[in-house]
Amino acid sequence: MKKDDIITVRIEDFSSEGLGVGYMENTPGLSFADADSKTANTAAGRGPVLFVKDTIIGDVAEVKVMKMKKTYGYARLLRIITPSPDRIEAACPVARACGGCQIQEMKYEAQLRFKEQKVLANLQRIGGFADPPMEPIIGMSYPFRYRNKAQYPIDRDKNGRLIAGFYAGRTHTVIDCRDCLLGAKVNKTILDIVLNHMETYEIEPYDETTGKGLVRHVMIRVGKENASPGQIMVCIVINGSSLPESGRLVKALRAIPGMTCITLNINRERTNVIMGRQLKLLWGKEYIEDTIGNIRFCISPLSFYQVNPLQTEKLYAKALEYAELTGRETVWDLYCGIGTISLFLAQKARAVYGVEIIPDAIRDARRNAERNGITNAEFFAGKAEEVLPEKYEKDGICADVIVVDPPRRGCDMSVLNTMLKIAPKRIVYVSCDSATLARDLNYLCAGGYELKKVCPTEMFANSVHVETVCLLHKPF
Ligand code: SAH
Question: What is the distance in A from the centroid of ligand 1 to the CA of 337?
Fold first, then answer.
């Protein structure tokens, strides 16, 4: 197989980035039904793996090979020969071009089955668990309009018109889309106002290639509407120290019901990282408030906060169920963000200790504890891999339950090793990447723990990502 070849492939999986993973049809040696994993396929001589954008599992498609490496390649979809039984028309007009929704063209039920399979396959292949104790995935009833946060890059199109949208997959080309169907409807109103302001006062968007221009991104966060209307935060990320005529912009934005916090974020670095460290409040409060369950949270622009509030409640309820708290336990919540899980658990535990690397998030966490009258939660700013070992070596801390909710790269070795030394009765592992989850679970189980339950949870409908909660018991 070489560049420019036109071939027929059958799509059998998705890559971690959401590209269809296919094999050439009619490759001798093995029928598709025989092969149940990528490794088996390649090993069995089915030829190279091809990654094809815009295809979904079950499609048979004609594709053109664009780039070929030794064992894999990339191909462009020419036409679908036989559509997957799970194929549907995307609800969003830019679903294909935009890198956000990789699998919008797949029936939602099938998306859920795929995610369950993905978690299972990673636990088996990477984790070495022959028969993981899976619970059914917690899905959504309506897989749109769920995101409470959006970060829109600002650019100009070919005709010089200002646009706001999302990056196309694998590139930094901005796809014009002010009303993302995953996000809140008010996002479009806000973007219209910001872009109009830029137009009026001739404010240039930031240009990544030259490092010139002012406005980089508009970040919007919206609280749940049960506090009708939900509180709104607008944060304009700029490559400079001020925004021309910002008073007029504030005036226009303030008219939107729910507007609570308008800030500038200063980012002068030539980097892909969206937000800089420095914030300048233009108007209102420095944070918005939102409720999860019976707890009210303050959220600053730089703090992490789960993006799918409906599902977050279900996720935390599962974590709480797995923690099996009676009111007597000491609990550590590592990678705690603004203390969301910690404060949930604190209501049922003796004491909870949270650790988080972002100082602003820890400030939010302390404020959240205080405002909710929770006095048995304490928070430490620092790296989990430094704070936990230090607390263990110096203070000989103990824990009945440890909850971890790390970023995609998973837990640091020193976190895993210290957890094994502390030896809590239960570990609840919340993960947004089932591959690193499987790796870490394998290590913890080699250290004596038993994997008791696994529950995939939908947090990112229409994307290939899946959240998972796991329970580990100490059998001794
Ligand atoms: N449990 C929280 C946050 C989970 S996201 C919630 O449900 O909202 C992961 C968090 O880990 C982020 O807040 C991130 O800032 C933090 N983080 C990343 N690396 C870290 C590290 N090395 N030590 C501690 N926290 C870290």
Answer: 5
Tell me which residue of 236, 230, 196, 234 sits closest to 216, measured CA to CA: 236
Is any ligand 1 atom within 6 A of the Cβ of residue 7?
no
Candidates 101, 411, 432, 470; catalytic one: 432
Q: Is residue 302 within 6 Å of ligand 1 at its C-beta? A: no
pLDDT in tens, 159-195: 999 999 999 877 889 999 999 999 999 999 999 999 9
239 phi-psi bin (left φ>0, alpha ψ -120 to 50, beta other): beta
- Average pLDDT of 218-229? 82
How far, in whole angstroms, is CA 309 from its chain's centroid? 13
Q: 400 CA distance to ligand 1 centroid (A)?
A: 21
Contact 43, 49 (CB under 8 A): no
- Token pair in block for residue 66: 């664009």
Q: For residue range 2-16, what is the model confidence (pLDDT) as tens digits? A: 999 999 999 999 998
Strand ranges for 26-71 from DSSP E: 49-52, 60-68
Q: At what angle do helices 246-254 and 186-200 cross, to 10 degrees?
A: 150
Phi-psi region of 162 (alpha: psi -120 to 50; beta: other; left: phi over 0): beta
Residue nearest to atom 22 of ligand 1 (CA): 383
In angstroms, the CA 408 to CA 268 distance is 26
Question: Would you call 177 a catalytic residue per the annotation?
Answer: no
Judge contact between 340 and 297, C-beta under 8 A. Answer: yes
CB 189 within 8 A of CB 211: no
Q: Report how far ligand 1's centroid is from the alpha carbon of 323 (Å).
A: 19
Please tell me if the CB atom of residue 364 comes closer than 6 angstroms to any atom of ligand 1.
Answer: no
The predicted structure's pLDDT at residue 28: 46
